[in-house]
Amino acid sequence: MVKHTVCNLKNEKVKDIELADDCFDTLARKGLVFEAVQRYLTNQRQGTVDTKRKGEVSGGGKKPYRQKGTGNARAGSTRSPLYVGGGVAFGPHQRDFEYAMPKQMRHAALSSALTMKRKDGELIVLDSWEMKKPKTKDAVKFLEKLGATNALIVTDAKDGDDAVIKSLRNVKNIKTVPVAGITVYDILRYNRLVVTEKALQQLSEVLS
């Protein structure tokens, strides 16, 4: 196990703890990390774009003109893609872009991202972070002392009512998530990863 410093909100060292090897000292599998990020971004796509086919356009039930003798190309409906206002040929339609990734691969990708963050010196472990009430100004001051003005903060809160989450939800370059909401994409996106000691234990239990 690797040792890591635990500090308080004043950026003072409190103690050293041992990090689980299978979470923070594993082989960094960049291929899995890449695939996890691609999956996350792909799953964000809405896929709601849609165009009407010939059979979905209203009107055009009557043959526009007789078959022969007009000199025009024969036509059976004004809903044809050849007409303005007609259907669209080979246009985009609604689809679901989401795809799954096996649990072991997801965990391996997450462990790889956490290991990379620790080795780059971008992991900050707090003994605790509790606020009696939401106060953005105080929360931002804490982060400035930690040198984490561009950071992903992982708390041990189980829902969105936590005062820390409320204090920081509108701050630029800061994102707060519970342990269940952590993603490889967010870990790599921000310069610092700030984790409370309780959240670290929960994370280790999930990945162990």
Short descriptors:
Ribosomal Protein L4, Chain: A
The geometry reads as elongated
Estimate the strand proportion. 15-25%
Count the beta strands. Answer: 6
**What can be said about the biggest beta sheet?**
6 strands, mixed
What's the overall average pLDDT, rounded? 90
By CATH, the superfamily of the largest domain comes out as: Ribosomal protein L4/L1
The CATH architecture term of the largest domain is 3-Layer(aba) Sandwich
For the terminal residues, how far apart are their CA atoms?
A: 13 Å
The helix-strand sequence is: EEHHHEHEHEHEH
- What helical percentage do the residues reach? 25-40%
Taking all Cα atoms into account, the compactness measure Rg is 27 Å
Give the number of helices: 7
User: What is the CATH class designation of the largest domain?
Assistant: Alpha Beta
Which structural class best describes the helix and strand composition?
alpha/beta
Spans of at least 5 consecutive residues with low confidence: none
Count of folded domains: 2
Walk across the major sheet and give the strand order.
Answer: 2-1-3-6-4-5
CATH fold call of the largest domain: Ribosomal Protein L4, Chain: A
Entry summary:
The protein is of the alpha/beta class and 208 residues long. 33% of the residues lie in helices and 15% in strands. Strands 2-1-3-6-4-5 form a six-stranded mixed beta sheet.
